[in-house]
Write a structure and sequence with these properties.
homotetramer; alpha/beta; Alpha-Beta Plaits; TIM Barrel; 2 domains; 8-stranded parallel beta barrel; 4-stranded antiparallel beta sheet; 11 helices
Chain lengths: ~325, ~325, ~325, ~325
């Protein structure tokens, strides 16, 4: 790291800072500029208490040189990670599409929609059994009954499952049923939950927090990975901005930024990213054109009657059209669905 | 609510929408404008699935007239709520100050800082036993041992305690030790945790989420209150914006906005709100001048060696000066400390 | 518009509001709900002083039903507008690419880059003669000399020209040389400048302001159009958010939103949108996949030595590759380059 | 500045970067870390084209050590600047209040409000003759007639004048009438306008841009100062965030940040900062408590009938109460009104 001293820092102050850095185990290289002095501090100490230095007299700021995450970084693993979900490979040449309703409402309907999305080319079935709803008066999900329905749909279709877990106490049970555990945007910094899924073996779909920076997102991945589970799939789902014409602002540029910074696969969620059915097709195309490894899309037979997120759900027929469009984009970027 | 039809919606479409509204139990009042038709739908149905209407042909948007929260609203309780924490009243004439270190590191030091902040006028002692840290490699807190130290400090000083709970599994134990349960910014929409503290009887300090709107924040309060625990104290601690010269942007105007929209008391956290010791005094003064009912401030004997948040902690001597300044502001607005 | 009365508004207050609305020329339709009363006010009076009503006792808020813009809206013109720039059609089936350096530095180099981008398929040549730079110590552009060089490059290549105008005093001279007048992001709400280009006949490329909402952007277009010049081309170039890994956050979803709200064509600027050469190809592809009518891209023979924006400029060879990639995407969405 | 090389940069690459830095006139100090190499480059070259280095192979990023502004910085002038406006001193012990209507509507009314605000303690009279309105269909101001009315009000009351200039072509005429030239938020990066007022001698009130960082704001001040006019008064007026309960989010912490970074005085605008009359008193108090050198407040005899910004204007009676409240806060921080 680089320690920048204030203009007018005294020799005494500079010497003390250097001494402290040596004491902390760094090698030091002071550079005396015309106006300011900086000290290069050598040593990979990502977890040093920076404040020991920052609070010293004469110190202006500290510039970190090393990234705060390791396991999630391209610096460690140069090659893209491909995550195998029972034969479905995420992060490879194929664009993997996850689809299904926001919330699970009943078995017959769920299996019906599962068959429909499978027919259109989806490989993974999404559905919510435990729902984080912003109002306490909204439908909160079918819980274990929902997981059983998902399991039945998997048996009926062969699709793999992804579903959200919202409480540390539920990780064990959700893990028994699902193929991928989803951490929702509101729980991206629920660190206890991250550790809990990090202790398991199932792949984790880690949604970006509502206002998380890319660094914080990769730090959340690092939490999971540092517990031993390196199978993290990132999911861009829109960030909070001042613009209100969409539910969130989908940060499509996060896709190439992640591809440069991390070896982990990244999928995109145009349903939550936009919040409106009519914008889902164009944003699904854009995400794949930008390099996403997959999509997660809300599909419901009867969006007006959906118990959650109907305004951003596609019908099976609309989903089928989107798959056809996205397939052409996939080909245009040298990939397939 | 008001249903706005698109320009060019047909009579047929309008009739169908009206019919559906009646079916859902609303009384309807269509208004035929020059260009657009709107339908007033009467009936307090906050939890109706809006999408049933939104998805109908010819419908442009729905404008809600009622607020999504009730218990947290001024519409229900016209008078400010005063929360009694073992004799310390939050929301009354007195400005209540909560102070202490970010993380609890050891008993002797913690009692020392407790005595110092008490001497300067703090009524409630803060300290972190369970820490949500953005890096998995940072100090995560002393957990129950920390709670025991807090308890000892209460015994030694008579100060009341506030401490954060980060996991549903810990609510029971934290509840046994503390006087106020804190829900941190990252957990403001951890709905299970909100329900869990809503089932208890201890007052809850609910920090605003990193990028939460005021409506979402009050909905989080509603979650707690709807479980039966109406003792919620709101805490403004800065929001995420594009500005990087402060850790967050402290939304001082949230104080008068909350005072207008809710009956709940609100305190301010200038330590997290700014992220820099040097900005804490001015923002503490500003918060009280704007009408805050209290402050929560990080104080540490030796900020450079603090295991967490040292860069935003005051020394006891600095805290004492801030208390004197804030006391003058409190008087200027007709209150006291 | 809809006037919402507070809960508890008296009959007297409601009557007075209705009376005032009638006085202002509206027809009124009060709707008495269980808790609140609302009054539908009929009449297309977009420019009424809302405060006349808002300030009345008992009034809570006003909900506008009509959009604040007319000429830029789809409500007026149902079909997409195609703008003809000397034979190059923007807004039709063809994706139109504008390319060239950020600033014009010299004639020989500019003509060279013009020939290169033409060869790769660009139809319009961009270049800055008047530069808005955030530092007063940075290169400010060649001004009229730059315009002459652009003119020479047009003569040499047949490409059409787009260049920015930054001051009302320069509109006349810039208009003499260029084919499209560009209004930069920082001037999107420089209303005098908008009026000045609105009085001309040349098409205007209107960049979205750094933190402009889509409504404000269309209102800026309305400023130009209301002066008589309806040839406005919108340009998405990224918005300001909290994320710092890109220079701006490119709001790709603005493309379908604009397509739904307005009949005007929209192009995208992946150079300013991302700020980094390495992210330009993926975001150029994404924009076209999402439905953009064109692109504007910074190209420089020697980006390291560019006097402005070198870090986001492509070399001619890189640009050629991007054009090939984008061409495939264009085909995938049924368009061509 | 510090040049950071990528992990894995070759010796050859490092040598080339060092060579280039020497060629550009820097002295170089390479520091070889365990994973990365950084090169300290000594020499105050704020305007070097960083891209010459950034684009070299093996270079990851450049960390600037010097601030991009000089004249506006505390590094140059250690003492606060006090600006004398015909005897009214801004930046000294006294809190200076500027008040008046958003737009000038007529002479009699304007003089009446001027007398009222003077009586309550305002020292400077504000009023808009040239109005930047977001809709082309809104009232655009009385222009020179408005300036004449302002002049008459000055003659009648002795108050100094502040008014906005929105076009380079109007600087000369506005300068003839006013005592302080205001640059509005939308023109903070209208660099030509900044230069024009920088060439004059009248103090300039520089409002912060809608989404400007503090650094960009000080760079705008630098534009004015680098032309020779060092009399810049900064004005915090709220920034754009995702929160919609206020028109803008008033960044009160910008006050202590500016006090630390610059020697220039700073005033606050709670009218635009909040957009609602009811929040103006609390935010006026907060700004002064945080250290603002003054306030600028919208006052109108009849806000409901104001031609602009009525929803955020105070009546003279309300203003008088705010002045009394703010006066107490000023005393509490050791200042006066």
């Amino acid at each position: 790291m680089i320690v920048v001293l204030r203009e007018g820092a005294t020799k005494e102050q500079i010497k003390k800072v250097e001494h402290k850095l040596l004491e902390l185990g760094f090698k030091t290289h002071p550079i005396y500029g015309e106006f300011k002095t900086v000290i290069g501090a050598i040593g990979d100490k990502r977890n040093i208490n920076k404040n020991l230095i920052l609070s010293m007299e004469g110190v202006e700021e500290i510039v970190p040189i090393m990234l705060p995450y390791k396991l999630a970084s391209r610096e460690l693993y140069k090659n893209p990670t491909v995550i195998d979900v029972g034969g479905v490979k995420i992060g490879g040449d194929e664009i993997v599409v996850m689809a299904g309703p926001c919330a699970i409402e009943g078995e017959a309907e769920f299996i019906e929609v599962a068959q429909a999305v499978k027919k259109s080319g989806a490989k993974i079935l999404r559905g919510g059994a435990y729902k984080p709803r912003s109002s306490p008066y909204s439908f909160q999900g079918l819980e274990e009954e929902g997981l059983k329905i998902m399991s039945a749909a998997r048996a009926a279709t062969g699709l793999k499952l992804v579903t959200e877990v919202v409480d540390t106490r539920d990780v064990e049970i959700v893990d028994q049923y699902t193929d991928i555990l989803q951490i929702g945007a509101r729980n991206m910094q629920n660190f206890r939950l991250l550790k809990e899924v990090g202790n398991g073996k199932k792949p984790v779909l880690l949604k970006r927090g509502l206002a998380a920076t890319i660094t914080e997102w990769l730090m959340a991945a690092e939490y999971i990975m540092s517990e031993g589970n390196e199978k993290v799939i990132l999911c861009e789902r829109g960030i909070r901005t001042y613009e209100t014409s969409t539910r969130n602002t989908m940060d499509i540029s996060a896709i190439p930024v992640i591809k440069g910074a991390s070896h982990l696969p990244i999928v995109a969620d145009p349903s939550h990213g936009t919040g409106h059915t009519k914008y889902v097709p164009s944003m699904a195309r854009a995400a794949v054109a930008a390099g996403a490894d997959g999509l997660i899309v809300e599909v419901h037979q009867d969006p007006p009657n959906a118990m959650s997120d109907g305004e951003q759900s596609l019908t099976p027929a609309e989903f089928d059209r989107v798959m056809k469009e996205v397939s052409k984009i996939a080909q245009a970027v040298g990939r397939s669905i």
